[in-house]
Request: fold
Amino acid sequence: MISLDNELLPPLGTFKRMIDVIPEFICIKKPDGTWLEANQFALDMFGIQIENYRGKSTEFLQSHLTAATIHRCRLSDHEAWEKRAAVKTVEEIETLHGSKIVLELVKQPTFDRDGNPLILIITGRDITPHKQKEEELSVALDLLESVLKGATDAILILNTRRECIKVNEAFEKMFGWTEEEFIDFEDEPPVITPNHLREASNKIMEQLQEGTSIPIYETQRIKKNGDMIDVSVSFSTISDMEGRLMGFVIIYRDISSQKKVERALRESEAKYRLIAEHSTDLIAVIEPDGKFQYASPSYSHVLGYSSDILDCSLVDLLHPDDTEDLINCFTQVLVKKQPFQVEFCLKHVHGHWVTVETNGVPILNDHGRVESIVTFGRDVTKAKKTEELIRKSEKLSVLGELAAGVAHEIRNPLTSLKGFTKLLHEADGEIKGEYLRIMESELNRINEIVGELMLVAKPQAVSFEYANLSEIINSVVLLLETQAIIKNIQIIVKMEKDLPPVYGVENQIKQLFINLLKNAIESMENEGIITLELERKELAVQMTIQDQGCGIPKDRLKTLGEPFYTTKDKGTGLGLMVCFKIMEEHSGEIEFSSEEGKGTRVEVLLPTHPPARPFKTHR
Reply:
């Protein structure tokens, strides 16, 4: 056994001067664990500040090593002597300033020729930066693995030879191939690119290798079961710290559902465009400011305009009198996002006006705002003229029937007047005054009857204004009372006090009530009672006509208002058609209920202000 006494110290002192300049950990221990020598790097690492460290074990040295670290060092020293071979350990040491360093230590035992323990040489190096990079790499790998696992898109990672080195779970679900099948294939490798797209795919990979960036594009790929799917693909490269190409990342997103919706949308758009292109209705897509986005060919047929209609606004074609109504409709659709119905006149390319009945529907964007309005219109110019002719025809028919009653009613007072004229020659002063009073009364009655007849017959400009419904009802009753008296029919009028005026066209309202009351009189054979009731109903006035006539069969209630469909032997059905049209123009409501043999009840509701609610009919 070689003695390590003071005779070896001078050589060791020379040795220390040599090892102090080495920037690595060097320490020499005796078999009993006491320090024989160490360089300054080792002393600094362990924080040993005393000069006389030689001959002392680590436990008795003043340092900043923890008890746990000292214990591990002693165990690794013992392990090296026991194994009689080098032992590698890693120790995390806390410095004097509180920071931590990581030392990688190699403990090499030495023995003399007889195999007796000589010295334990401990060398080491600071691997703190390396350890930090390993930890950062480990975190990065864990993060990458987490990203790959949590990604909903399919991810394929290739090396520079375009061999698969990694796929995520989403890839396996999308294409049906597992990572093992892609990496450790025994036969032919899995293929996800269709034959007709392989050349394009190879060109993309070549461009990537040359450093060219590839934008996301849409294509198709094949699943393991052979199904073809639509995908969007993005490519990127993987490079090392020095910029050398190491591989490729390809990300696939399944857009089959989106493509299916797009194809269905295109097919649907093509179908609707086909319908619009061949429809006789005026179909248009209009921007909120009134400018045309689309106009069907029917605009050319009806208004004479060609494609240049898209360069103008709907207001440019609109009749000046209809501008306010259309602006109100557009305001309603933009603010309330509700459909509308309106009737207005558009200017024909040759200068005359075309009446169009139009429905508008708002189209909302993803934010709930109106981005356009789709309108469906039809030319009702001829229909309006026909309705006016029918109304005039019906009015003449009513006047003709009234003429007989009026003639009878006028003949009675005329007979009286003729008789009183003769009596005046023989009467004294007092009786003469009474005769003149009666004669004046009869003349006034004749004047009222003729006046009412002229009011119905005289054409009037259609203008909406407030009208007194009580006065209208009284004048209609006066006009038809003679016809009722002839059939021994009593007309009873019940009115609520202080009825508000209704908003409408007085002449049309009067024609409405003449037609309804005349129908009630004609439905009764001989004698009976017709009751007219007027009462307030919220923002309207309701008039109810109840007769004791023959009634209307249930199957015919549904057809009321249709022209030339009537329950009368010589009727035309135009009277009720005119009534329904008048109610539509006044945005009112009319409802019929009847029972055969017991009579018919008609309820008419007229607004007391310019109404916004739609026209309703109940039969």
